[in-house]
Design a protein that fits this description.
The structure holds two protein chains of two kinds.
Chain A: E1 4-5, E2 10-14, E3 19-21, E4 24-25, E5 32-39, E6 46-52, E7 60-61, E8 64-69, E9 74-79, E10 88-96, E11 103-105, E12 109-114
Parallel strand pairs in A: 2-12
Antiparallel strand pairs in A: 1-4, 3-9, 5-6, 5-10, 7-8, 8-9, 10-11, 10-12
Chain B: E1 4-7, E2 10-13, E3 19-25, E4 31-37, E5 43-49, E6 56-57, E7 64-68, E8 74-78, E9 87-94, E10 104-105, E11 109-113
Parallel strand pairs in B: 2-11
Antiparallel strand pairs in B: 1-3, 3-8, 4-5, 4-9, 5-6, 7-8, 9-10, 9-11
The chains are: A mainly beta, B mainly beta.
């Protein structure tokens, strides 16, 4: 069963606008961590933001915030004030405490920022 | 700090050939990982090493072997390459195996098997 689902293969956003990238996950483990990574066209994987299952507040890192809705099992990434350099693939990932701490990645969403 | 380095960056193999992908990290991390990335499938874990001297299978280990040579180095070996192993391979490391451990990735190796 797929544990991380990213339903948007591609997204377009106008420069300076906000955009939300969707991520839903499936786990029965009460302890887990959720990650977002960015992969620009150059290919490297860049860590953006982390949310723990027991964290009471949504994580924020600069222009990135994670909209964590535990009951709905969703962990959407919000990018505010989009920039041209935000054009990239974005991956949602999960690590379960009972899964040997292995990280599972979603299929990714490609974001295009328009000038 | 170089972070996580991988060699080679690109490689073309014929079916049946063998090769070893090298990975090294200089962050004194305990845990290291090998992933493959195929179009439309995200990253899938091949093998990981929680600490020096240990290795474990991930999601897609068939056709691969690994060696944790020391704390810094973690190599991935393809004994008899197959076209299905055409992919981009990423090495990563993290301080430990904790739930919140952020992984740092290398630049990737693009492998084509003909």
């Amino acid at each position: 069963a797929q544990k991380i689902t990213q339903t948007q293969p591609g997204m377009f956003v106008q420069e300076k606008e906000a955009v939300t990238l969707d991520c839903t996950y499936d786990t029965s483990d009460p302890s887990y961590g959720l990650f977002w990574y960015k992969q620009p066209s150059s290919g490297e994987m860049i860590f953006l933001i982390y949310q723990g299952s027991y964290d009471q507040q949504n994580a924020t890192e600069g222009r990135y915030s994670l909209n964590f809705q535990k009951a709905r099992k969703s962990a959407n990434l919000v990018i505010s004030a989009s920039q041209l350099g935000d054009s990239a693939m974005y991956f949602c990932a999960m690590r379960e405490g009972s899964g040997g701490f292995k990280t599972i990645f979603g299929a990714g969403t490609r974001l295009f920022v328009k000038a | 700090n170089a972070g996580v380095t991988q060699t080679p960056k690109f490689q073309v193999l014929k079916t049946g050939q063998s090769m070893t992908l090298q990975c090294a990290q200089d962050m004194n991390h305990n845990s290291m990982y090998w992933y493959r990335q195929d179009p439309g499938m995200g990253l899938r874990l091949i093998y990981y090493s929680a600490s020096e001297g240990t290795t474990d299978k991930g999601e897609v280990p068939n056709g691969y072997n690994v060696s944790r040579l020391n704390k810094r180095e973690f190599s991935l070996r393809l004994e008899s390459a197959a076209p299905s192993q055409t992919s981009v391979y990423f090495c990563a490391s993290s301080l430990n195996q904790g739930l919140y451990a952020e992984q740092y990735f290398g630049p990737g190796t693009r492998l084509t098997v003909t």
